[in-house]
Amino acid sequence: MKIGVIGYGNMGSMIVNNILKLNLLLDDEELIVSNRHLNKFESLIEEYPEENLNITSDNKEVATQCEKILISVETPQFKEIIEEIKPFLNEKTHIIYTCAGLNFNHIKPLFDGKLSLVIPTLASTVTSNNSISSLARRKGVTLVKHNSKVELQERLFVEDLFNEFSYVKRIDNPIYFKEEEDNLHPADNELEMSTIISSCGPAFIAMMIDTFAQTCSDSSNMPKDEIEDMILKTIIGTAMLKDDQGLSNNDIINKVATKKGITQEGVDLLDKKFHKISKSLIRTLLNRYDEVNKDIGKTYLKK
């Protein structure tokens, strides 16, 4: 079986490299990867010269040879890609795409076949030989949503593949969001909210680490990179504490913060400020999702 990948940007390259690093291809499987700039493949070819790997700049070659095609490009490019390869697709073709905000109804006028939306996260990158051999090599959460034409075995193929290096969360519900006045109302927005947490999350976490590290450095004689390392190890240790011992967030807070102590002073300040910031962040992102959805609709559903 030949598996096609169109696009070798941040997500496409992460997925391809994970597949090859973890040796996920069977003996009779071949990976065909397409990108308009072939020079992006130099390190890939150097690292995996003998793998079942074929690279090309011709998307039509991928569409002609592969029934399973992963398209990992920017959302505006997706329409162009589908229109380009559409003459070579058939009822067996299974399109798997990573474009957040692009739903099945947007694509249906262009391709009314088997579709799986996959939202990966940079956190799932396989980074070392230790993570390859580790039983706990899965990192981050990959979101997966299938349309009704994707059969069970095809669903399992997608989910099993991403389950090798991440935790797969299947989204089965339709999506929409409603807001009235100044209140956030629970809605069927599982995909958007899960994307904010898993896919957007690494950027938000990295920004908080950077800001906290810079503030600590400005208030001391410690270099920022040393502080960042301490913060990172503390985050990992805290996550492992929750995972290994099943401690709740309140359990950890109560174990660390003593009454009228330094930690409690900080917890009290964050309790006052952070809820408001989090609420504003979620509202902003969900509103932006709505704007993006409308913009995509104008592009994909225009007559």
Automatic annotation (TrEMBL):
UniProt-listed GO biological process terms: L-proline biosynthetic process
Single GO molecular function: pyrroline-5-carboxylate reductase activity
Binding-site residues, NADP(+): 6-11
Domain Pyrroline-5-carboxylate reductase dimerisation intervals: 190-291
Lineage: superkingdom: Archaea
Family classification: Belongs to the pyrroline-5-carboxylate reductase family.
Binding site for NADPH: 59
UniProt-recorded name of the protein: Pyrroline-5-carboxylate reductase
PANTHER family: PYRROLINE-5-CARBOXYLATE REDUCTASE (PTHR11645), PYRROLINE-5-CARBOXYLATE REDUCTASE 3 (PTHR11645:SF53)
Coiled coil residues, start to end: none
This protein's UniProt keywords: NADP
Pfam families hit by this protein: F420_oxidored, P5CR_dimer
